């Protein structure tokens, strides 16, 4: 598992601004920070992909370069993933993308989180490296349900789970429930979930901070 904030970098300032109640109500900045972390995490994921050598011509002479062997497929889990996904898409600019509409059904009086998944549009995923992008990995149910549904569109060679903040409970849920090759890329591993299955310390509701509350 790759955890970005284990090392000092400017990414930790972006993460701090996402969490800080004095800053994170500025929606434009909140979305921009998600996008910036998406770009940084995409760069880290890019180091794990396969490259091929080829020859190009500069105005001065021929030279050998290493470029991606195949483009990963990017999948955005609507709605909160949109700005974070944009960061990935800025880096993997030749990639095809897919979209999944998923949200947690939080019923009062019921601590169990269920996921409603109502929309999926993706290319053929057979034997592809897929980057599944969602900023919050809380119970892990949205990621696991998304992967289960993605399999209808082909079995990927590998899935890269990409999130900004994860809870240990969600990481364990993913490890116990995914039966295809995967790796996890996160910016921070937080302490735990609270009784409403929100990540603590976390940042609150990522979708609401980016776009406002939904009915
Ligand atoms: O790990 P989990 O417990 O499944 O929680 C994580 C999910 O919660 C958030 O979405 P939310 O359901 O709030 O939908 P939204 O994107 O519409 O805000 C987040 O973007 C994940 O999809
Ligand atoms: O802490 C959490 C958990 C799920 N979704 C969020 O946006 N935040
Ligand atoms: Mg939400």
From TrEMBL:
Gene3D superfamilies: 3.40.50.2020. It is an enzyme of class 2 (transferase). This is Uracil phosphoribosyltransferase. Its EC number is 2.4.2.9. Keywords: Glycosyltransferase, Transferase. Pfam families: UPRTase (PF14681). PANTHER family: BIFUNCTIONAL PROTEIN PYRR. The lineage of its organism: Bacteria, Pseudomonadati, Bacteroidota, Cytophagia, Cytophagales. CDD domains: PRTases_typeI (cd06223). It comes from the Bacteria. One of its GO terms (molecular function) is uracil phosphoribosyltransferase activity. The keyword Transferase applies. Residues 9-212 form the Phosphoribosyltransferase domain.
